[in-house]
Amino acid sequence: MKTITAFARILTVLLAIAALASPGVAQDTVKLGINEVRSGAFTTNGDRVVWGVEAAVKEVNEAGGLIGKKIELVIEDNQLKGEIAVQKLKKMILEDNCQIIIQGSSSGVGGAIAQQMPRYKRIYLCTNAEAMAITGENFTPYTFRTCLNAAQHVKGLAKYFGGKGLKKPFLLNQDYSWGYDVAKYYEMYVTQYAKDAKVVGKEFHPMFNKDFGPYLSKIQAAGADYVLTGNWGTDMTQLITQGRSLGLKVPIGSTFIDDDAVGAVAGDAYIGDIGANQYILGVDTPQAKAFEDGFFKSSGGKWPSFVAMEAYIGTKMYFEAVKKAKTFETEAVIKAFEGMTYEGPLGTITMRKEDHQAQSPVAVGEVVKKTKYYDFPYLKPVMIVPAAEVSATLEESGWKPYKE
Questions:
Q1: Does the domain at residues 27-148+284-359 carry the CATH identifier 3.40.50.2000?
Q2: What is d(CA 235, CA 230) in angstroms, rounded to the nearest whole number?
Q3: Which stretch of 52-66, 212-226, 286-300 has the lowest confidence by average pLDDT?
Q4: Quick one: 205 exposed, middle or buried, by C-beta within 10 A (0-12, 13-18, 19+)?
Q5: What would the CATH number be for the domain defined by 151-277+362-390?
Q6: Shortest CA distance to 49 belongs to which of 90, 106, 95, 94?
Q7: Can you list the positions of beta strands (E) in 25-164?
Q8: Phi, psi (5° rounding) for residue 199?
Q9: Which pTM value belongs to this model?
């Protein structure tokens, strides 16, 4: 009996040692989850989110990790569907123990993820999805949006077109929350920069639309002097290429026209169109050049365009919050993140405490024939708008305090 008891004690000690030793690597590793579209027509969007996060993670791991921990990524395909994204995040948190969930492609998907996070007490890092409700009426303390929202984005475009004396926009957008926000807030802000501006038409089309002909006819019939759209992915490419082939000569202004995947397909049809974003390649400052070169090196030879840039910035902002908190523990990181400032490539980005919406400068650019970045037309920066000029108030954002 004593022999059995002694053996049991030895076995207990050995198991305890194994429990400490075998997860040693795991204890020194923290997992972050990327819940993105990895299949279908909008895969290139998901690719770029992953590239941006990977570049930021590679930098921190090569520097020795974050507060003594190596970062490991868990990547899941949400197929651009909210219900699948919710299923995936449950697995990522409960089985993979991901500290945060990162997502950017589609505000519809982002909204679905955001509403689940209070249940799991983990952070949703929104790096690209810009619909207002995410940090507005559907705000939760577990959501942090590091990119622009719709209001900030379209304010930058409204200032540009107003300064050019163009006053007759036609609003053409995807038929879901994001597209409706673009139209709503552009109408709200356009007269701030062109007092007698008038929206001459407004249409919403289904996502993955293949025939823009009927909409282009309406644009031309309305006498618009520019088109304003929040389209992204294949919907952006189709609008540009079909528009030019069917005789559309006015510029297209877009929140996401700085997608290199769009430029590669659109080619010369792209020239003269206008885009705005949290950053555009080619800003002529030492800070911007260091940002570009750092991303290029960390990403293995990719330039920080479109959503890759936003995902990179957002991930680095999260890392700064962790450093400030000195822990990955959710509540401590939330507290550190609120009100935090981060020096981005265009200047200071502030995480607004109340709604967890980044207050960021905006770059505006025009597509030109030749840049140093790609062998097809791409944007050249023409204007930087300070964060204070594009900020939307809490009231304008529709923000509501969180109630459990």
A1: no
A2: 10
A3: 286-300
A4: buried
A5: 3.40.50.2300
A6: 106
A7: 29-36, 70-77, 100-103, 123-126, 143-145
A8: -70, 120
A9: 0.89
